[in-house]
Amino acid sequence: MTVPVIWNNVDLYFQNNLQQEDPVMKSVLKANEEAGLPAIDVSPNQGKMLYLLAKLKKANNILEIGTLGGYSSIWLARALPNDGQIMSLEYSEKHASVARQNIRNAGLKDKVTILVGPALETLPTIEEKGYHHFDFIFIDADKQNNANYVQWGLKLCKPGAVIIVDNVVRNGQVLKEDEHDPNIQGVRDCIELFSSEPRIDATAIQTVGSKGYDGFLLGIVE
Ligand code: SAH
Ligand code: DHB
Ligand code: MG
């Protein structure tokens, strides 16, 4: 996707002014590229935003769906207190193994557990593994299952939990009601669920930047 130069430059301007040099994050992106992973991680400014939101929430138990190379997992793990934990669900064994190495290199291996498999198959197993009472949930996997993931999130979360869903604008394609692309339909189903679910108080924010024109859906569970 080509991104307008000004979006990139403003993103870089904020990153350079509001973040320290970050050799760990740089090496994660380099390792992902070397392993041939798609460059669809959140941007540095979005990662920092997730980190700040998790800190604001004082999150202890995070659920992430869609690990890729662990870039967003590492941002979120940095927001955790010493005894905090992230459970991150990933379909691809290859992505998970790159992520595990990145997480080890970042010194965060005691905070992050990655479970490999289709998330709809692993979600039913995590409570018995001791992972529940999530207070922060980041959904960023196959978009057609967004609504299913939110339903699981509602089952596994604590009152007051934050749910964030990535990629809810998709260059404006979210408006295409008749779109047959299951990814777009998945985003719309998720918005509809947020809209009809009285336990969720929500908004969505459009973003432009190095990752193009997209957005986050953000809700708090009653
Ligand atoms: N959150 C990551 C990016 C995730 S990209 C970051 O910002 O760094 C989306 C990931 O979801 C990919 O790694 C993909 O393999 C994974 N994924 C796709 N379908 C999935 C499924 N059914 N269950 C779990 N993970 C899935
Ligand atoms: C895609 C997926 C993402 O999670 C993202 O942030 C950007 C792009 C994709 O599948 O194209
Ligand atoms: Mg995403």
From TrEMBL:
Domain of life: Bacteria
Gene Ontology molecular functions: methyltransferase activity
Keywords: Methyltransferase, S-adenosyl-L-methionine, Transferase
Protein EC: 2.1.1.-
PROSITE patterns xref list: SAM_OMT_I
Recorded coiled-coil stretches: none
Gene Ontology BP terms: methylation
Alphabetical list of InterPro entries matching this protein: Cation-dep_OMT, SAM-dependent_MTases_sf, SAM_O-MeTrfase
PANTHER family reported for this sequence: CAFFEOYL-COA O-METHYLTRANSFERASE 3-RELATED, O-METHYLTRANSFERASE-RELATED
Name assigned to this protein: O-methyltransferase
Lineage, opening ranks: Bacteria, Bacillati, Bacillota, Bacilli, Bacillales
